[in-house]
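In this supplementary section we document a worked example of the pipeline. Step one takes a protein sequence of length 255 as its only input; no multiple sequence alignment statistics are reported here. Step two produces a three-dimensional model, which step three serialises into structure tokens for compact storage. The input and output of this example are shown verbatim.
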Amino acid sequence: MQILAAGVSDVGQQREHNEDSFAILPEFDLYIVADGMGGHRAGDVASKMATHTIASFFQATQKEDATWPFHFDPHLTVEENRLITGIRVANKRIFDTSSRYREVQGMGTTVVSCLVARERKKMYVAHVGDSRCYRVRAGEITQLTRDHSLLNDYLLVMPDLTPEQRDELPKNVITRALGMQDSVVVDLVPEQPLPGDAYVLCSDGLSGMITDAEILAAVNAHPGNAQEAAKDLVARANANGGEDNVTVVVIDVSE
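The serialised model returned by step three reads:
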């Protein structure tokens, strides 16, 4: 399995500062997008802290005798544990920093991350917040993550909400993010990638600006070219108004 990935982060058309971050770490087969919150300085700090801390955790746990800061879940694979723990370490660091320094008080960030486990022929998608992972396969697009949003929480409890009732709920209120509390629940989706698949990690600056069909069209327009697909996606979001920072990582899978 060959993995090629590329990312683009753009301030968008209406914001002065970019509070998004992304990381592409081919040495670990690890890919991350984070969307910071809490104002210019704080959001920027939180998203960078998330990507840097997760990357540092993977660096520190390369050796089998490395010490892990959280309990190892025996029901999960080593890769799943490593990905979830990296995100939990990032959450703790952001929360502690936010509690200690007034200038970044209340900062937080969403995160979505993919880890490829080549020996298992698996990919693990972990996320907190409303940054998303999509899979493009055989001409179809599937959202693999579920937004941790107020609207989605309502729909879990009351799935029969009318369109009018849905419209009354605030659209951009998220109910889970890194840095909000001392600990965090990380959602994990196991995935079996196939040659020809493409995966799109993105902040809501993309998914809020263009439809899933447009994401599919942009990826299909650049088969096997993650860099051009990522550029196209950001350009489409900006052409539709670019109301937020836009960050995309595209991951192409081939033989």
